Amino acid sequence: MLRITEIFYSLQGETSRAGLPTVFIRLTGCPLRCRYCDTSYAFSGGQTMSIAAILDAVAAFAPHYVTVTGGEPLAQSNCRVLLTSLCDAGYSVSLETSGALDISQVDRRVSRIVDIKTPGSGEVDKNRWQNLDDLTAHDEVKFVLCGQADYHWAMQVLRDFKLDTKCPVLFSPSHHELKPTELANWILQDRLPVRMQLQLHKLLWGECAGK
């Protein structure tokens, strides 16, 4: 059983899968409190569902891509079972995780999107740095940047861990805190081997759009 906030069908707004029609499974609960969080409604509530019921709900959309997100999905131990079940069902599966919890036991067929928390998030001390040793080319690393200090911090992490040699690296501006054009100019100026991304779903549908 898992606690589920919502299951919905939309375009993927982030990562290298941006623009792809995707079913999102949002799990309830999160041990972090990032100051820019846009899904705080998933911290509590939701409904308890069996994995079989979740699979039935996903199948109703007949998708190819499925994303498991939160909250922090790995905060629920049965999330790993769900991920494997989705892979076994033939879906292309991605996991959006804060990187504060161990990703090593996640099914290797899953694309793990690890969100490294910057100082500006208020949760930098929660990063589980061992996760970076477990990354493969099938995964992605994401930084949400609140300003230039975060940018320089993320650039140092990128270099120290040679992240661009392990998997795609994504830099995103925190909404209302960093202008996209500023981030774009910094990336070009420093010739960083990263992908800049904006939240496509918010460009299309505004602030009310989910993650």
Automatic annotation (TrEMBL):
Which residues bind substrate per the record? Answer: 11-13, 26, 69
Which reactions does this protein catalyse? 6-carboxy-5,6,7,8-tetrahydropterin + H(+) = 7-carboxy-7-carbaguanine + NH4(+)
List cofactor names only.
[4Fe-4S] cluster; S-adenosyl-L-methionine; Mg(2+)
**Quick one: which residues bind Mg(2+)?**
39
Q: Does the keyword Iron-sulfur apply?
A: yes
**Pathway(s) where this gene product acts:** Purine metabolism; 7-cyano-7-deazaguanine biosynthesis
> Which Enzyme Commission number(s) are listed?
4.3.99.3
Listed name of the protein: 7-carboxy-7-deazaguanine synthase
- GO function term, MF aspect, one: S-adenosyl-L-methionine binding
Q: Where does S-adenosyl-L-methionine bind?
A: 36-38, 71
Q: Which residues form the Radical SAM core domain?
A: 17-207
Q: Which GO terms describe its biological process?
A: tRNA queuosine(34) biosynthetic process
Q: Please name the PROSITE patterns in this protein's record.
A: RADICAL_SAM
Organism from which the protein derives? Nitrosomonas halophila
Binding residue positions for [4Fe-4S] cluster:
30, 34, 37
Cofactor binding note from Swiss-Prot or TrEMBL = Binds 1 [4Fe-4S] cluster. The cluster is coordinated with 3 cysteines and an exchangeable S-adenosyl-L-methionine. Binds 1 S-adenosyl-L-methionine per subunit.
The record's comment on protein family reads: Belongs to the radical SAM superfamily. 7-carboxy-7-deazaguanine synthase family.
